[in-house]
Amino acid sequence: MQCPKDQRVTLVNATLSNKLAVKLCPDCQGNWISATDYEAWIASQSEKTAEPKLMAKSTTEINFVPSPNDNRAALCPECQHYLTRAKVFYKRAFYVERCTHCGGIWCDKGEWEVLEKLGLHTNIEQLFSLEWQSRVRELEYSEKERQATTEKLGSEVAAMVFELAEVLEKHPNGDFGVAYLMRRFHK
Fold first, then answer.
1. b vs e for 115-146, b when ≥16 Cβ sit within 10 Å of the residue's Cβ?
2. Which of 60, 117, 135, 180 has a 20 to 30 Å separation from 10 between CA atoms?
């Protein structure tokens, strides 16, 4: 079985957390997880569902740099179909890949550890759902909007705006406060 990112390298047997059997690329350190091994491993785990907000506001510090191979297209080492990608939005976004034909999963170096620390490793199929990816895009847009607001207003004023937005969101008549502010700026 060859590495999906470099067909010249043969994968070797290895294990990940809690005795999950994988095929490891000795060169790039990526892991191929067969669907059969993953399903058997999942059956032995307690299920844990993560929410995308966990990724955006996570206080979990993980020293992770996405692999330079993350943007490289890949073929399934088992059945040679193209792998599809699911974006994982953490401080530095990365992609987990899966074969839609045989269900195998590819994690580049360090990605499994991030998934594990975020509690996503037992729900990888959820990452590939349209709902999940839509929520991830919303989070990504929200983070970019906050960053742009901070750049335009400065960190001190932006912090006040974010705080006021939270107060107004929670207030039963918060929409009146928003309407007032909008009228002030449309004169």
1. bbebbbbbbbbebbeeebbebbeebeeeeeee
2. 117
Please give the single-letter amino acid code of residue 29: Q
Q: What is the dihedral of CA 12, 28, 94, 82, to 10 degrees?
A: -60
Statement: the pTM of the whole predicted model exceeds 0.70: yes
Question: Tokens 């490793």 appear where?
Answer: 121
Residues in the chain: 187
Give residue-wise pLDDT tens across range 88-120: 877 778 899 999 999 999 999 999 999 988 888
Q: Say whether 7 sits in a helix, a strand or coil.
A: coil
Question: How far from chain centre, in Å, is Cα 72?
Answer: 17
